[in-house]
Amino acid sequence: MNAGARGLDERCMPARIQRPDGRLRLPREKTPDSIFQAVGRLLQSAVVRGGAVMTGPLSGWIGGGVFLVAIFLPGLLLVVGSLPFWDRLRSRDGLGSATAGINAGVAGILAAAWVEPVFVSSIHSLADAALALACFVLLLSARISPAWVVVFAAQAASILAS
């Protein structure tokens, strides 16, 4: 590995999950949050390392983008290729109900995964909860553009912080 790639790798991979010999390990406490952070750092390291090692027109950010596409493209192609079969399965009576239940279960898992990193780390007071609820109402009931809701939330949060 060249010196530039090594420097980028050390910035992306903290010492707590990278051994001196370069092999990776998970933190000792295997909480869902620590495992999620380790997997995120591994993905980030793979993208940055691939972009940093390359030379020529695919170096730096462009190489990182190419590697990011290369990582996610197979999964995207798999999903796109299975859509016709999924539509056929949903059209059957018994399997349509099962897929509706699977979709509800996935929505519940995604909501639970959102609560821990986002809600717990950002809602600290009743004012924070009121601001989050106001933004939610603006998005769903008032049908205000998400860009304007973000501007409103940023302004309101800066007022709340002062």
Listing every helix as H and every strand as E from the N terminus to the C terminus, the arrangement reads HHHHHH
Termini gap: 48 Å
Helix/strand-derived category reads mainly alpha
Mean pLDDT: 75
Strand content: under 5%
What can be said about this structure in brief?
The chain has helices spanning 3-12, 32-53, 61-91, 93-122, 126-140, 146-161.
Strand and helix layout:
Layout: H1 3-12, H2 32-53, H3 61-91, H4 93-122, H5 126-140, H6 146-161
For this entry, give a set of tags:
162 residues, mainly alpha, 6 helices
Can you characterise this structure?
Helix content is 77%, strand content 0%. With 162 residues, it is mainly α. The protein folds into three domains: 1-91, no CATH class; 93-122; 124-162. The longest helix is centred in the middle third of the chain and has 31 residues, at 61-91. It starts with a helix and ends with a helix.
